[in-house]
Predict the 3D structure of the following.
Amino acid sequence: MTAFARFVLFISSYVPLFGVFALLNSFGNGWPTGFCIGLAALGLVVLPTTLLRGRKLAPQPLKADTAQVRDGDALAYIATYIVPFAATTATTARERGALGLFVLLIAVIYVRSELFYINPLLALVGYRLFEVATPAGASVVLLTHRRFLASGTSLMARRLGDYVYWETKR
């Protein structure tokens, strides 16, 4: 996946936050609120588009020797980043700049660390996260609609990053 696609997934993961910023006028009335609404709308539109483009990636076999649910990662993401931001109302230009800079810093870390799989919108549409150990001893993250992943399961998945896979139908 390209850095742009990862950034798109970051934007979509912050749709709830941008919506709250807009409702609270966190960056002020007028264009700042409109910008937050625009980012939220952009995230809602580009997520399905990015997922559709991801279907062009060639699927490959993936065997899960063991699997552990990682759905708590999305909750930790919300609690750590979105909730504190949502409670913030920046009243001065310095506070708004600092808040914007912090969101930008989180974006860079999120994209470079390949944390794009942690996305509340993906959870809302039924995706679950599993940490999967492969027969080669690698530990990867799998995005799937499955509720349970038994040890020894063989499946087809698209590689989204160095250690992130997205299950596909055969």
